[in-house]
Automatic annotation (TrEMBL):
CDD domains: DnaJ. It comes from the Eukaryota. This is J domain-containing protein. PANTHER family: DNAJ DOMAIN (PROKARYOTIC HEAT SHOCK PROTEIN), J DOMAIN-CONTAINING PROTEIN. One of its GO terms (cellular component) is membrane. It comes from Klebsormidium nitens (Green alga).
Length: 390
């Protein structure tokens, strides 16, 4: 795709420190990194700037974000710089609103084949938010709303949160029985510009027979589970499907929803058609038991992630050792076979006997044909008859 080619070129020319590019410190949180990226991506987006310099800056910002938003790549960069990052395996965000029909078809095809395609919120949505022009409808508590949203567009919802709601905990969840792709967005007011900033987003994931995304403001440390297992990488390293599966557990950007008005949006992320969905807001005190279960399972999963990291080292060392001893086994077996064969030849030299030749003495053919037997009989009776005449 043309977009992919442009991104590859940006990766090759990238030399500056990604922290410097995004203007964030090395201690920046995932939320700060994402916020800085969105502002710069909107500033340099090709739809707003036709200059080659802006295009290069946009590629640079996108690549820096691809490194710092991925925990593994961020850790590799912090330890070894660009030499430690596999730039060829970099996963970039695509703005589907800027792709042509052909490139969108290719992206959809790759997605069907299992290739993870990361998509970005269209700049028009972010611009509308900054201008404050968000036509939001009220989202009632405990009453699901069924709706449809066009691709690369958003439906906005206003949720009024009281202090009681905030203290109890809030869940905003979206599901699609049509298994549509969508993003759930959260906007907060920006006093400096008078509009709204996108502060958090969750991409829909398949959950049984539906796709779903949700924000869980439960007033304690939560983790989202980002997809980290690339089917193409798993084809080369099947064990990665297990060992990398929990790496996507990352701290949630927002764990508490303060009292006041909040704007949520459902963004259509299908490649070609609109997305159908249901959105609902719940107060957690009505499901306190579920809240305790979530906190418990999160703790268990984090411990399991640490266990897997330790076990991966042991496992891969054992696999490498097994491959080594298997290869040595094959070498040893070949050498033993050759030595035993040589031993047999050496022992054979102690014998002075000449090996017997195949036995070739003529014998009467027991399977001789009947005609041959008749000829022999005639010759015998002929001799007998002559002697009798004499």
């Amino acid at each position: 795709m043309a977009e992919s080619s442009q991104l590859s070129a940006g990766q090759k020319t990238l030399k500056r420190d990604p922290y410097e590019i995004l203007g964030v410190p090395k201690t920046a949180t995932a939320d700060q990194i994402k916020s800085a990226y969105r502002k710069l991506a909107l500033k340099f987006h090709p739809d707003k700037n036709d200059s080659p310099e802006a295009t290069e800056s946009f590629k640079e910002v996108a690549t820096a974000y691809a490194i710092l938003s991925d925990p593994d790549k961020k850790r590799q960069y912090d330890a070894h710089g660009y030499d430690g990052v596999d730039m060829e395996a970099m996963e970039m965000e695509l703005d589907l609103s800027s792709l042509g029909t052909v490139n969108t078809m290719f992206a959809a095809l790759f997605s069907k084949l299992g290739v993870p395609i990361k998509t970005a919120v269209a700049p028009s949505i972010l611009e509308a938010a900054l201008s404050g022009q968000l036509p939001a409808v009220t989202l009632p508590w405990g009453v699901p709303i069924q709706a449809k949203v066009e691709k690369q567009h958003a439906n906005y919802y206003k949720l009024v949160v009281t202090q009681e709601h905030s203290d109890a905990g809030v869940v905003v969840r979206v599901t699609s029985h049509a298994q549509s792709k969508f993003k759930l967005l959260l906007f907060d007011p920006d006093p400096q510009v008078g509009g709204y900033n996108l502060v958090a987003q969750e991409d829909s994931v398949k959950a049984g027979k539906v796709t779903a995304a949700g924000f869980y403001f439960l007033n304690f440390k939560l983790h989202r589970l980002d997809p980290t297992v690339n089917p193409l990488h798993v084809a080369k390293d099947p064990e990665a499907a297990l060992f990398k599966r929990l790496d996507g557990l990352q701290p949630a950007e927002v764990t508490r929803l303060d009292a006041g008005e909040h704007i949520f949006a459902v963004y259509g992320d299908n490649f070609f058609k609109s997305a159908t969905y249901s959105i609902e807001a719940l107060v957690v005190d009505k499901i306190a038991e579920v809240k305790d279960k979530v906190e418990n399972i999160e703790r268990i999963l984090l411990d399991k992630r640490n266990d897997l990291k330790a076990f991966e080292t042991v496992y891969r060392d054992a696999v490498a050792k097994y491959a080594e001893v298997t290869q040595k086994y094959a070498v040893e077996k070949k050498q033993v076979d050759e030595l035993l064969g040589l031993r047999d030849k050496i022992y054979a030299e102690f014998s002075s006997e000449v090996l017997p030749q195949p036995f070739t003495e003529e014998v009467e053919d027991e399977d001789a044909s009947p005609s041959a037997e008749k000829k022999r009989k005639k010759r015998w009776w002929g001799v007998k008859s002559l002697s009798s005449k004499q």
